[in-house]
Write a structure and sequence with these properties.
alpha/beta, 46% helix, globular, five-stranded parallel beta sheet, Rossmann fold
């Protein structure tokens, strides 16, 4: 069985159990129980999360994301937690760190999912213009580092309001749609 690690924010928390179900015949799927939050948090915790599947040298794929927390303007601040340049720098460091910690791993980066345009503004404000800008930064970094990108933004870009429970979190149906996309992407990466 292949070994997969899923790392990411609360959106990942919503779909990881479903990915585990979908890939049960092909892979063991591991993930942190907590929200992986922003890029610095991912970087720092990789030293622990690399062991989720046992020996890090046996991990086949890491599918990961961060972005919502990085672009958020926390508690009314007028600046994001990480501006686009800082975000790009952290993404590079995370990929380099993953490659050192898990030498044979195939890495996939998942783009940040949309904010529902009809929902009330988030307390830690961000909007879809922010999401698109940060996704463009992430795509450029991943292209530079030869890391495939899973476009989860596109999966939900035209999603109906009924798939959302708030401005960015989803119903089970929404999370299952993301899980199907994540599982299909992982299958594709494993087949290469």
């Amino acid at each position: 069985m292949k070994k997969i690690i899923l790392i990411g924010d609360s959106i990942r928390l919503g779909y990881c159990g479903f990915v585990k179900e979908v890939l049960a015949d092909k892979a063991e799927v591991f993930f942190p129980e907590d929200n992986c939050k922003f890029s610095q948090n991912v970087f720092v915790h990789l030293s622990w999360w690399k062991d989720l599947a046992g020996d890090p040298a046996t991990v086949d794929v890491v599918h990961w994301n961060c972005g919502h927390w990085d672009m958020a303007r926390w508690r009314g601040d007028d600046k994001p937690l990480n501006d686009p340049d800082a975000y790009a720098a952290m993404l590079r460091r995370i990929v380099e760190h993953m490659r050192k910690l898990m030498p044979r791993v195939k890495i996939v980066f998942a783009l940040t999912t949309p904010i529902h345009p009809d929902a009330p503004p988030l307390a830690n404000y961000r909007n879809n213009d922010d999401v698109r800008r940060y996704n463009a930064v992430a795509r450029a970094v991943m292209d530079e580092l030869d890391v495939p990108v899973n476009d989860l933004f596109a999966v939900l870009e035209n999603a109906p309001a009924s798939l959302y429970t708030d401005a960015c979190h989803l119903t089970e149906v929404g999370y299952r749609q993301l899980a199907d996309q994540v599982a299909a992407t992982i299958r594709d990466v494993l087949s290469r």
